[in-house]
């Protein structure tokens, strides 16, 4: 890097969710995992970064499985005595009502300072805005994002924190740019001057590689909520984000530079948004992980020094099997191949692809030669996602000794799975996986990836050396053709390469574990990611 760390520009990082500790329920999934690891890396490596987020009263969902195998959502109210009261309260005008937002500080999980806004303040008519993460419907989402963005910038001002760069992790934070615009307009700048000056301060990370998955709102609804913040006319809003107003399009136009979260994702995102005139350039900064949070340090040291990886892994596998027994009552076989699959329950991730031609794997699961642990949540309002969960739960009843579903996925389950399974399975429809950091965690723990060439895996995969690829990077908009192709490829590599290697070539397996760890531990560590953010986005 060209500049010393002392000269690095201070950054304010905005995100709807942060995963810092399993019991701190202000995260839902991968976006929060990335944000939490980012803040921990910033602390470890002394980067001048602060985080801005929301203090969720009920978090995402506590999702349990009923006796009938259905996903049931519950929403406990959480209290966090470890948060520090900054004494700061800021106000955001939502639907022409003043909503007071208390500001808390979280800095005790080895993370850079994280400031959390909270509308659960006595006397607030809209105290439940920060109730449920990704909860409810359009108006509530806009209100939540106004608190994050507009309230977040106001909190920085009240705290006396100066930022030169405002980093929006996903389009949820876009309204922070509207507050930066308001400030400049209040100083007497013209709309065009304010827009250019604001663009010069913002960088943006885009994630979802499917247009329909990117959040949008009717402009009438934005105006009714007051999300324009006095900074934009209807016509200007439409010019920025289209009509309906797309939050990602708005962020691409209101940032000086943007990034995708893997090299393949950068190609996908540039193609997807190629018709957006006046948008920022989208470069690739591949996601990474915080090793101390997710990786067994002993196994990394053993890989570097020629230690006994199979022995160490057997210990982690036993811990996982004991964990599963305690949670579900199922006793898995420590000597049999154990696959891990932990994903949000959505169709493109194809959770049940391994079961689509049952004759190929039926005997393996019945005899216990093949075992698999699933985990993951469906969004509370996603009936299709809940069907996927129910289908997997049905498989646990059909193969009670070899198929497991761990309900209510959280960081504890994630850490146990990426350390204790033998193989990490990932089979999304390419190119719909943006990055996928769970595979990085598995790889660094010596758990071998068996994955479609999507997300981060094309950058790391050496087939048969540090893991396996499923298929050949095939893409097809016809989902039936794509699924059939990938199903054939999955069974071929699983039956002809993975299973024989596990049972007949233990030393080769151990060497693949070693290669998996050594080839990923630096390239996909959070330090590399932060340095790339500075060199590619933050430093002008």
Description:
The protein has 540 residues and is of the alpha/beta class. The protein has 18 helices and 19 strands. The strands form four sheets. It has a nine-stranded mixed sheet, with helices on both faces. It has a six-stranded parallel sheet with strand order 16-15-14-17-18-19, sandwiched between helices. Strands 3-4 form a two-stranded antiparallel ribbon. α1 links the parallel β1 and β2. It starts with 10 loop residues before the first strand and ends with a helix. The N terminus is likely disordered.
Distance between the termini: 12 Å
Q: Taking Cα atoms only, what radius of gyration do you get, to the nearest Å?
A: 23 Å
Structural class call reads: alpha/beta
- Percent strand equals 15-25%
Q: Uncertain runs with pLDDT below 50, 5 residues or more?
A: 1-5
Number of strands: 19
**Rough outline:** globular
Number of helical stretches of at least 4 residues: 18
Largest sheet: 9 strands, mixed
Strands ordered across the widest β-sheet: 5-6-7-2-1-8-9-12-13
Share of helical residues:
40-55%
Summed over residues and divided by their number, the pLDDT gives a mean of 96
Helices, strands, pairings?
Blueprint: E1 11-14, H1 30-44, E2 49-54, E3 62-65, E4 71-74, E5 84-94, E6 97-106, E7 114-118, H2 138-159, E8 165-169, H3 175-186, H4 191-199, E9 202-205, E10 216-217, H5 219-225, H6 234-241, E11 245-246, H7 247-253, E12 257-260, H8 263-272, E13 281-284, H9 291-294, H10 297-305, H11 309-328, E14 337-342, H12 358-367, E15 370-375, H13 383-398, E16 403-406, H14 411-420, E17 423-426, H15 437-444, E18 448-452, E19 467-470, H16 479-504, H17 506-520, H18 526-538
Parallel strand pairs: 1-2, 1-8, 2-7, 8-9, 9-12, 12-13, 14-15, 14-17, 15-16, 17-18, 18-19
Antiparallel strand pairs: 3-4, 5-6, 6-7, 10-11
Helix pairs in contact: 1-18, 2-3, 3-4, 10-17, 11-14, 14-15
């Amino acid at each position: 890097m060209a500049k010393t760390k002392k000269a690095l520009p201070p950054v304010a990082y905005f995100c709807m969710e942060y995963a810092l500790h399993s019991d701190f329920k202000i995260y839902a999934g991968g976006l929060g995992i990335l944000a939490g690891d980012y803040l921990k890396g910033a602390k470890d490596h002394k980067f001048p970064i602060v985080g801005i987020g929301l203090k969720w009263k009920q978090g995402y969902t506590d999702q349990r499985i009923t006796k009938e195998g259905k996903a049931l959502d519950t929403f406990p109210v959480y209290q966090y005595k470890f948060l520090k009261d900054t004494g700061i309260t800021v106000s955001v005008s939502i639907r022409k009502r003043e909503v007071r937002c208390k500001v808390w500080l979280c800095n005790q999980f080895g993370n850079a300072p994280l400031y959390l806004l909270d509308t659960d303040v006595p006397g607030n008519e809209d105290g439940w805005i920060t109730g449920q993460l990704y909860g409810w419907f359009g108006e509530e989402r806009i209100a939540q994002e106004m608190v994050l963005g507009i309230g977040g910038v106001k909190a920085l001002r009240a705290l006396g924190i100066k930022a030169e760069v405002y980093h929006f992790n996903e389009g949820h934070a876009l309204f922070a740019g509207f507050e930066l615009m308001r400030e400049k307009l209040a100083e007497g700048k013209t709309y065009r001057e304010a827009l250019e000056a604001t663009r010069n301060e913002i960088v943006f990370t885009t994630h979802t590689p499917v247009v329909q998955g990117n959040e949008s709102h009717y402009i009438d609804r934005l105006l009714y909520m007051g999300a324009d913040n006095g900074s934009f006319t209807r016509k200007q809003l439409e010019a920025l984000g289209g009509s309906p107003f797309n939050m990602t399009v708005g962020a691409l136009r209101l940032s000086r530079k943007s990034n995708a979260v893997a090299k393949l994702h950068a190609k996908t995102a540039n193609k997807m948004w190629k018709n957006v005139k006046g948008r920022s350039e989208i470069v690739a900064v591949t996601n990474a992980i915080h090793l101390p949070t997710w990786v067994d340090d002993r196994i990394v040291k053993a890989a570097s020094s020629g230690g006994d990886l199979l022995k160490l892994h057997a210990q982690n596998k036993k811990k996982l099997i004991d964990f599963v027994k305690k949670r579900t009552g199922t006793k898995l076989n420590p000597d049999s191949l154990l696959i891990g699959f932990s994903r949000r329950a959505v169709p493109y991730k194809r959770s049940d692809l391994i079961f689509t031609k049952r004759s190929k794997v039926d005997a393996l699961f019945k005899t216990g030669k093949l075992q698999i642990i699933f985990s993951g949540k469906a969004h509370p309002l996603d009936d299709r996602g809940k069907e996927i969960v129910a289908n997997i739960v049905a498989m646990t009843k059909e193969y009670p000794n070899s198929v497991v579903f761990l309900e209510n996925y959280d960081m504890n389950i994630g850490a146990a799975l990426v350390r204790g399974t033998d193989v990490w399975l990932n089979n999304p429809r390419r190119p719909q996986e943006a990055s996928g950091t769970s595979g990085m965690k598995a790889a660094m723990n010596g758990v071998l990836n068996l994955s479609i060439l999507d997300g981060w895996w094309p950058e790391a995969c050496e087939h048969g050396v540090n893991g396996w690829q499923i298929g050949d990077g095939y893409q097809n908009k016809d989902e039936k053709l794509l699924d059939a192709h990938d199903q054939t490829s999955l069974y071929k590599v699983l039956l002809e390469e993975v299973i024989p290697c596990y049972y007949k070539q233990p030393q080769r397996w151990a060497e693949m574990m070693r290669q998996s760890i050594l080839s990923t531990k630096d390239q996909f560590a959070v330090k590399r990611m932060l340095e790339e953010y500075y060199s590619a986005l933050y430093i002008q």
